[in-house]
Amino acid sequence: MREDVEQMPDYCTIEVAMSVLGGKWKLAILNHLFGGPLRFGELKRALSTITQRMLTRQLRELEADGLIVRTIYREVPPKVEYSLTDTGRSLESIAAQLDQWGQWYRETQATRATANNPAV
C-alpha cells in the first residue's frame, strides 16, 4: 500500500478507495482480470484506446497497491502475466454493481435525451 493512503484520516475511507481505484482505467483493467490471468498484450487489445505508457503505469500502481500480481516466467521469449490478488478479487462484486449502475445510467440518460429532443 502506498504511504499516502496509510496517512489518510479514518474519516476519508472513500478517498482511500478513490486513491487506489480512481482514474479511467484501473477498474476496467481489474474487470478484465476477473476472467483470469492476462498478458500485457492481451490487456492492451482488450482496452484498445489505452496507450502502452498508461497501461504500464496503471499496472504498476495496481501492483503497488496489492490488487494484482505480476508473474514473470523464465522462458525465451520472456512471458509476463498479470493476475488478481485476493484483495483485487474482493472488488469483483463492487465492479459488477458499478457495471449495472453504468448500464442503468446510460439508459436513463438516453431516455432523457430522447424525451427532451423528440425530433431525434
TrEMBL record:
<keyword id="KW-0805">Transcription regulation</keyword>
<dbReference type="InterPro" id="IPR001845">
    <property type="entry name" value="HTH_ArsR_DNA-bd_dom"/>
</dbReference>
<protein>
    <submittedName>
        <fullName>DNA-binding HxlR family transcriptional regulator</fullName>
    </submittedName>
</protein>
<dbReference type="InterPro" id="IPR036390">
    <property type="entry name" value="WH_DNA-bd_sf"/>
</dbReference>
<dbReference type="InterPro" id="IPR036388">
    <property type="entry name" value="WH-like_DNA-bd_sf"/>
</dbReference>
<dbReference type="InterPro" id="IPR011991">
    <property type="entry name" value="ArsR-like_HTH"/>
</dbReference>
<keyword id="KW-0804">Transcription</keyword>
<keyword id="KW-0238">DNA-binding</keyword>
<feature type="domain" description="HTH hxlR-type">
    <location>
        <begin position="12"/>
        <end position="110"/>
    </location>
</feature>
<dbReference type="GO" id="GO:0003677">
    <property type="term" value="F:DNA binding"/>
</dbReference>
<dbReference type="Pfam" id="PF01638">
    <property type="entry name" value="HxlR"/>
</dbReference>
<dbReference type="InterPro" id="IPR002577">
    <property type="entry name" value="HTH_HxlR"/>
</dbReference>
<dbReference type="GO" id="GO:0003700">
    <property type="term" value="F:DNA-binding transcription factor activity"/>
</dbReference>
